Amino acid sequence: MHLTAYLGLLFALLACLFLAGYAALAAWKDQDHGLVILERGFLLPAFLVLVSSGLLTAALLAKDFSFLYIYEHVDRVLSPFYTVSAFWAGREGSLLFWSLAMMVLGAIFAQTPGYRSLAGRTKVFYWLFFLTVQAFFLLLLTCWSNPFIEVVPAPADGQGLNPLLQNPGMIFHPPLLFLGYAGFAIPACVALAAAIASEPGSWIKICRNINLLSWVFLTAGIVLGGWWSYMELGWGGYWAWDPVENASLIPWFSATAFLHTAHIEVRRGALARTNVLLMALTFLLCVFGTYLVRSGVIESLHAFGEGGVGSPLMLFMLGGLGISVLAVLAGDRPVYRALSDMWSRQGLLLVASWFFLALGLVVAMATMWPVISKLWSATSVGLGPEFYNRVCVPLLSLLVLLFCLCPWLDWKVGLREKRGLIATGAVFVLSLAGFALAGVTKPVALFSAAAAVTAMASCVLLFALLPQLRRSRHSFGAYGVHLAVAVMALGIAFSGPYKVEQEAALSPGQSLDLSGYTVTFLGTEQERTSALSLVRASLRVTRDGKEVGVLLPERRLYRNFPQPFAEAAVLPGLGDEIYATLLGFNDETNVSIKISVNPLVNWVWIGGTLLCLAPLLLLRRKGEA
Length: 625
Hints:
Layout: H1 2-28, H2 35-41, H3 43-62, H4 68-73, H5 80-85, H6 91-109, H7 113-116, H8 120-143, H9 168-196, H10 202-206, H11 208-232, H12 243-268, H13 272-294, H14 310-330, H15 345-367, H16 369-372, H17 385-405, H18 418-437, H19 443-465, H20 473-495, E1 500-506, E2 511-514, E3 517-528, E4 532-543, E5 546-551, E6 554-558, E7 565-567, E8 569-571, E9 576-585, E10 591-599, H21 602-613
Antiparallel strand pairs: 1-10, 2-3, 3-4, 4-5, 4-6, 6-7, 8-9, 9-10
């Protein structure tokens, strides 16, 4: 089985190289009559990767420890759900999943009306780029990250899955990210092909659905990753600006900027070259995210160590960037159309795009700062969360305020609806005053909260004052996304700056008071299974003498892992959420706990869910223009 699965990847690599060479020859001769060979030939490597992936899945379910990859990530007591999720738990499996996702999505895209509407020359260049990308990933899998290495003799048991990954969020978080990464490969290749073939503009409409779905997958993966961090790491937060968190956020900023500039091109026929470069950059930043996580260049809690893939990934990114620039320059020079004044809807859309790109650049530079600082210092210098919060949070708050203003401007110049703009301004002033009177004194939190409330009010006012919007599904989708961002911004404005937490050592019957809540330690209980042993603390939470609920945080010791892991417990609410972590315990049943009161934190998850669902209303249906 090991050799069969590996040969599947090897022959898929050879097939992709052959087809890419054929596409290059056809592009050189400016011929497209061989497209049927490319379109049908691609099904062979897709099938081979699918077979190899199926063999790995079957070996995982059978817990065949003769596979080194399975030995390193699975043991006999691991549940079936987490056994399957071990597919993408390691470097080799995650790269295989990414390759598989690109193959499947590429095969689906080739059957769509959008692909069939492309000119023959554009299709040839698309296959040249797409097959080259596939060949690169298969080269990684067959040379540096082979998931099918055999262990002889086969061990009786495996090392087990990292306990931090044994969480429902990690079943879905990595696949969603990889689906987003893989999805962006298709429009990036189409954009470059259209630029070389001098077919600008049309590719944006053709790739609209795959772009939106890729953005949704990436967004969902990021939001779910934040929830996993909040629930599993036990520190009471959802975003620490960890390099692995930033790895997926950086291409998200680029992709979001592209969605705004693409709208300008569709409406005005401007920014054609900019959009090609932005789309290519988005995919390359997805690869950059993989480089951060899998090259060992940056230390992180849940990054992979150096596995030989760092240099190939870096060369691929540099080569891809060079090819992208050349592809844009090689195409026919587009007809430029002047943009309207900045104080127009398209002007503010462009400003918002620059904000997103600036945020992406800041996060990327700060993440790589330990590496960059070595150029002039013997020791690397890292930048902590306070730097990101000081720089990025104000910029994000200004973006939310742009959401309030942009919809009320006309597309070219002037106001779309004066009453709405005046009402929106009044809401902002009243929100500032109201939050200030309520005791919100931190400037950034005050501004962010007022901007978030104003953005939500602006969305409501738009549909109240402009009846035509209520008849448009796409309007509900677009403004639903902005509403979701505003809801998240409100949660972020309070859940971080106004979180209150306290650590205490308690004996049974003792209490601590925190932010109006009384937490009483009732006792502990122990539990043991074949996979782990745990101690669970029972904490009763009351407020003004009324019981709010009981928290049951745990301290777990997993089989094969000597260090203990915390399992946090929460009492959710739309206002305050009470969060508890069991830090330690002793034989006398005394415990050390950390209690946090996180205001409005669930608004982050509510807004994040809406942010993933609203774009589905923007998908083009068959027959729509």
